[in-house]
Amino acid sequence: MIQLSLYKKLQANHGEMILDIDIQIQSGRLVAIYGESGAGKTSILRMLAGLFHPEKGKIIVNNQTWLDCSEAINLKPQKRKIGYVFQDLALFPNMSVRENLLFALDKGQKSDIVDELISIMELHKLETRSPDTLSGGQRQRVALARALVKQPDLLLLDEPLSAIDHQMRSKLQDYILEVHKKFQLTTILVSHDITEVFKLSDHIIVLENGRIQKQGSPSEVFSGKNMSGKFQFTGDILSIEKEEVVHIVSVLIGNNIVKVIVTEEEANDLSVGNKVIVASKAFNPIIRRIG
Amino acid sequence: MEWGPIILTFKLATVTTLVLLMISIPLGYWLAYTRTRIKPVIEALISMPLVLPPTVLGFYLLIAFSPSNFFGRFLNDVFGLQLVFSFEGLVLASIIYSLPFMVHPIQSGLSNLPPNLLEASFTLGKSKTVTLFKVLLPNIKPSLLTGIVLAFAHTIGEFGIVLMIGGNIPDKTRVASIAIYDEVEALNYGAANFYSIVLFGIAFAILLTVFLINKGVFKRFWG
């Protein structure tokens, strides 16, 4: 269980903003903090990691107090059991891929975990390469692997996939889900990408101007109420074509293009580029705009 | 014609550069990451040798180290250190004189690194010292090289401060630049020319090596 209450005046683009949040996160969950850029998402992660200090607040992780401003307790980043994947990844350019991972080992920790992570993330062929020579997706895998070497309790991901193209992104999301389950992590993901949040997280916290606007399961948060779909996916609308009396909407879900038939009335609410949920109740697919 | 002054010059430059490296790395690190309000004051003090005539620095060091006052006597009685007209005194004066040439490149090299490198290392459980030596310094090699060469070259080129505090004692404080001045005064143009040519050639060789290495370094990092 992670208890988090933080208060801090931040200097945002549009002037002063007060970050004031109170969150409880159950262990083992994959929680997304969703919001526009400048809403204070990254600040929350940095405070959790001990890289940034709130004016008032408390952080308790698994009954261990990491921060308590009223008692002047403030654990250094080194003492907090976290894995942090930075937005720009922060791979060390002077070390090879394998050396980046080895560097993260704690004193006396066996290097077996490095080999295991190299195999999970399929980094065999890249082991001796310098991070500068890797593609965005490869660098991402290295950063994720490095963050997991010291087997943290808490994995923090700051817009992990923002710089990656669509196809690669879906694959990397699978890696994140895999390690989240395998290492029984509590993961906090910061993102402004609804598709990503939908696919990865089981709990979403919507942040707006430093305050929590709403929270709940992805479908609760983004569709107003639970749709109780048998299955559901999120995707982007690629095109809407009129055919006789109906409209055919092509939706890109992961790498697949799914065509859904909608009525003219429904089509009026949709436009190319919208993010949508495609869900099925019993047998008819439902399509609903979420962004 | 003697090699003594040339050897002494390089001995002084080598010792000064090594000591400066040990001082400037922690100092540059502190300056790059500190948020203290007195930082501009410290930066101004470190940069003073860039603008002050070396004679000013030499003059005050001469006064400070003189055995006739308290500080000089203290050094002499407690540590047996005589800093006026001695090699040790020259080293100390050179360190102060060349400090900005070593600190500035290191500080700016560290400031230009992405701040996340430092933070990533902290979140991986690494201390400041490990982070400095394993992550930060290896990524500012060109800056380190620049600092080393500038400090070394600047020490070779010292004249005023040496004259003030070191004097002209053969094999103790008679460095090449002083020897040249001395020979010219004695109208020994041949000897002056010898020292000058040696200094000229060596200085050129050092700088050329650095530029060649840097070219390679840049290629490797950004090619």
UniProtKB/TrEMBL annotation, chain A:
Name the domain of life: Bacteria
Q: Which GO terms describe its molecular function?
A: ATP binding
The record's listing under PANTHER family reads:
SPERMIDINE/PUTRESCINE IMPORT ATP-BINDING PROTEIN POTA, SPERMIDINE_PUTRESCINE IMPORT ATP-BINDING PROTEIN POTA
- Keywords in UniProt for this one? ATP-binding, Nucleotide-binding, Transport
What this protein is called in its record is: ATP-binding cassette domain-containing protein
Q: Which organism is it from?
A: Splendidivirga corallicola
Outline the extent of the ABC transporter domain.
2-234
UniProtKB/TrEMBL annotation, chain B:
Q: How does it sit in the membrane?
A: Multi-pass membrane protein
What is the recorded name of this protein?
Molybdenum transport system permease
Gene3D superfamilies (UniProt xref): MetI-like
Residues that span the membrane, as ranges: 6-32, 44-63, 83-103, 144-165, 194-213
Q: Which UniProt keywords apply?
A: Cell membrane, Membrane, Molybdenum, Transmembrane, Transmembrane helix, Transport
Which InterPro entries does UniProt cross-reference here? MetI-like (IPR000515), MetI-like_sf (IPR035906), ModB_ABC (IPR011867)
The family classification in the record reads: Belongs to the binding-protein-dependent transport system permease family. CysTW subfamily.
> Subcellular location, in the record's words?
Cell membrane
Could you confirm whether the keyword Transmembrane helix appears in this record?
yes
Which PANTHER family does the record cross-reference, listed alphabetically? Answer: MOLYBDENUM TRANSPORT SYSTEM PERMEASE, MOLYBDENUM TRANSPORT SYSTEM PERMEASE PROTEIN MODB
This protein's source sits in the domain of life called: Bacteria
Per UniProt, residues of the ABC transmembrane type-1 domain are: 6-210
What this chain does, per the entry, is described as: Part of the binding-protein-dependent transport system for molybdenum; probably responsible for the translocation of the substrate across the membrane.
Species lineage, top-down? Bacteria, Pseudomonadati, Bacteroidota, Cytophagia, Cytophagales
